[in-house]
Amino acid sequence: MHSLEKIGWDNVVQNKDIDSLARVMTVQKNSYRITDGDKAFHAQVSGRFINEAQSSLDFPAVGDWVEVQKLMDEGKAVIKRVLPRKSQFVRKVAGLKTEAQIVAANMDTVFIVNSLNHDVNVRRIERYVLSAYESGATPVVVLTKKDTCSADMVAAVMAQVEAVAVGVPILAVSNVTLDGMDELMHALPPKRTGALIGSSGVGKSTLINTLLERDVQDTKAIREDDSKGRHTTTHREMFMLPNGALLIDTPGMRELQLWDGESSLDTTFQDIDALGSGCRFHDCQHDTEPGCMIKEALESGELSEDRFQSYVKLQREIAYEKRKQDQKARLEEKNKWKQVTKQQRAKYKQRKMK
């Protein structure tokens, strides 16, 4: 077995010289820790890489496969290019900037982590499920702190989550009693890569420590009054579990602003999609049209108003973000050609002066 196979290489991406390949394990600002399966290196991207990068999406993320030049004596390496990704979890950066941020790459499964307490937010879970589908990976919802809840409370929360994560596996686990850990490990077999995604304080770092059977991540207690968490993980890092699987830990997200999701909206809301397919008109807006199955489902209680309004809201949010991205792309293209024209005029002027 080649050393790369130990860190998840499965030949999905072909390359003639696999000895020049490595995988990104940690990202801290502009510094990277990579491994070829045998040895770890501290790495930076090359100057050419920086000059050719078109956006933040081009830069390495945790889980990426990269082509590198190794400086063996120094334990350092230069990243020359990022290989095509089979999956990537992307969100919009916080604030008003129209810019994307890659949270993790090349994962097979996205574990959406939420704790079983009064911080459960099904609308937020919907967003995570949508982004997980959009990433190209398989979503799994993991509800932590099972030992702090009664069986009735666990069942009630799982029912709430099932209503918004249709068809998605839902696991309830405890880091104290280890209840549910076998099911979790079954979802993350050897040589496969998972990513833990969720808000602060839901137990991602504790989960990492439990699965690794040692303390590698700092943890902090949540606030007792509202179950809100505190940031403990400050960077993205990938760990190898005892069973040979790989797991990416990510900092807690205070909010998840969507970057895309249009192609995964129907999958996330497959209950609404199924109802809509039965409407009398194929372009039904689910408003005043006769024969609308969604209106009938809302009136009968088969479909909750909150669920439908969340669908409409996310649909509008994705469309709005898409318009902003298109506008930014047009502006960047316009500025690029302005710069090209300016350079050509300067060269023409220089030639005339000669």
Describe this structure in words.
The strands form 2 sheets. The protein has a 5-stranded mixed β-barrel with strand order 1-2-3-5-4. A two-stranded antiparallel sheet has the order 6-7. It is flat and about 80 Å long. The chain starts with 20 loop residues before the first strand and ends with a helix. Helix content is 33%, strand content 21%. The chain has 354 residues and is α/β, with parallel strands linked by helices. It contains 9 helices and 13 strands. Strand 8 (109-115), helix 2 and strand 9 (138-144) form a beta-alpha-beta unit. Among the domains are: 3-82, Nucleic acid-binding proteins (OB fold (Dihydrolipoamide Acetyltransferase, E2P), Beta Barrel); 88-249, 3-Layer(aba) Sandwich (Rossmann fold), CATH 3.40.50.300.
List keywords for this structure.
alpha/beta; OB fold (Dihydrolipoamide Acetyltransferase, E2P); Rossmann fold; 5-stranded mixed barrel; two-stranded antiparallel sheet; 33% helix
Shape: flat
**Quaternary state of the chains:** single chain
**SS field, number of helical segments:** 9
- Which sequence of strands runs across the widest sheet? 1-2-3-5-4
Biggest sheet details: 5 strands, mixed, barrel
| CATH level-two architecture of the domain at 88-249 | 3-Layer(aba) Sandwich
Query: H/E series, N to C?
Result: EEEHEEEEEHEHEHEHEEHHHH
Helix content: 25-40%
